[in-house]
Automatic annotation (TrEMBL), chains A, B:
Residues 1-25 are annotated as: Disordered. This is LacI family transcriptional regulator. It comes from Streptomyces inusitatus. InterPro entries: HTH_LacI, LacI/GalR-like_sensor, Lambda_DNA-bd_dom_sf, Peripla_BP_I. CDD domains: HTH_LacI, PBP1_LacI_sugar_binding-like. Keywords: DNA-binding, Transcription, Transcription regulation. Signal peptide: none annotated. SMART domains: HTH_LACI.
Amino acid sequence: MADTDRSPFTPGRPRGPELRYGNRPTMKDVAARAGVGLKTVSRVVNSEPGVTPDTERRVQEAIESLGFRRNDSARVLRKGRTASIGLVLEDLADPFYGALSRAVEEVARAHGTLLINGSSAEDPDREQELALALCARRVDGLIVIPAGDDHRYLEPEIRAGIATVFVDRPAGRIDADTVLSDSFGGARAGVAHLIAHGHRRIGFIGDRPRIHTAVERLRGYRTAMADEGLAVSDSWVSLGTTAPERVRAAMLEMLTGPEPVTAVFAGNNRVTVTVVRVLAEQPRRVALVGFDDIELADLLGITVIAQDSAALGRTAAEQLFRRLDGVEEKPVRVALRTMLIPRGSGEIPPS
Amino acid sequence: MADTDRSPFTPGRPRGPELRYGNRPTMKDVAARAGVGLKTVSRVVNSEPGVTPDTERRVQEAIESLGFRRNDSARVLRKGRTASIGLVLEDLADPFYGALSRAVEEVARAHGTLLINGSSAEDPDREQELALALCARRVDGLIVIPAGDDHRYLEPEIRAGIATVFVDRPAGRIDADTVLSDSFGGARAGVAHLIAHGHRRIGFIGDRPRIHTAVERLRGYRTAMADEGLAVSDSWVSLGTTAPERVRAAMLEMLTGPEPVTAVFAGNNRVTVTVVRVLAEQPRRVALVGFDDIELADLLGITVIAQDSAALGRTAAEQLFRRLDGVEEKPVRVALRTMLIPRGSGEIPPS
């Protein structure tokens, strides 16, 4: 995948209506629109006395129609308010996001900025509600792990100067800074590893098909199989929720069907933990490579395609602070490399 | 421990200056103090026009001196603002807190309320900064996993009506609703289990001594040893950070000292993962019981004292919403039971 070889922050291809950072309306714009002096706007913005209700209303209307927002760094100096950034997560209990959040927090902290998190629980409406609630609570910037596929609702916020970076999955229908892992390349390398160890009937169990990473990893699986001229039976591919019962049923079906698999590629860490349990119960040994590293996978001998979740969070946060520092450039798209870690399960030969 | 047998939410003993919930100043109090009418206060509070700057300043002064806060549920109805609660975590990357946060979020969601998180990274100053920042961003309530041991800084917020519940560790120097696991009883049961399997030289590796749970678990260890008339050598007890290098060094020292241990009790999940790795490298088998369950511990055969981290989060959140619903009672203190899960490592006999 070409993206993988790019150095971070070279411009990506525009893929939607372009949003410009840095063109925020100023207090001067508000003053002109409201037909008042700059000092009056300043008084209204800072809730200082000395403005008649009518004038205040006019200024407020100008603020709203222009999408004006206070310059927050100036405001921090003046009012002592702590700067903050928001992070919209997908699942608070997934350890993958734990490491990512902590990395974002470390960067935020180095910039004297608080991190405020929330979770969409994989619900697009909840994602929107949370992202806008964080904006309303005056975060200076936003990092989003998207659940939905339409982020036009953020356009007014971005135009108003809230820097926004997407991580783990791309933004939908807007062009914005995005930091991803190379899901396609990682899955392709993992499946190629199983093929190199002699497997021909390889299963793929992934997350729901509306999730970008699930689709990219499936594409990596199919490409690796095609690279070696191997056909893929429909019964070897299963996408759906990562609930243990669903994954267990999918795994058992692949093991007992007319063309039973001798190896399986697990599409993420939630899938892997259930697959490991199911395979531990089987009489014959089945090879496994899982996407995402897992704590204690070393002791269990689980071969994985590791994402660097801390690097994802760190890279996204650093890009956010570049934007907050006023760097103006086209939205960038970064894909971070993954790493194959052989530990035994991926090196089991076909039975 | 008597606390364990209490049903949730029977009042606890007061342990500090008592804070009363529900005695919030009203708009009427503000009006009386500022010497204006109720309608005027309402205009100021809701940023409506029709108030002179001088009057507004008088009202604002009354609001500040009384610690008045808008009635937020009424406000949600009027302004469509989303209700929210804040959660101050200790470490975003610790899976124990992931499950706890998700449980809090589920309760919040069932109440139509957003959850906003942040992490103290085990730094008392950061905890205070974050908790106050969340209050300033108008959360309706706060759940705190404390890093510090003095929470008097929250008294003005609690008096002003921000419901506050502490979880996992108790509040310091204020009396507030608190939901804990029975750390003492759990550790005592885990060490008794090792003794019952024939061990006499048992090590304890725990978190830093300023952390309440670390101290309680050490007390459980010492009590279990004393229960059986067993002496504890100084070289068997090690408290400190949970950094892998620190835990590894402590474990190796206990294994190679003049009175080498035949079993070890690990004080939390961060300690356990390192101890498991060190023990896997040893020529002789050493028994292990760890506090906290760990993902895949079943496959690795690790015996644990499991806390129900989801129940901790759920119980704390439900208590918070009882407070937000206006329930007035003395602060309660709940200790949730832990559970011994034998899986092999705790049943290894002394070598």
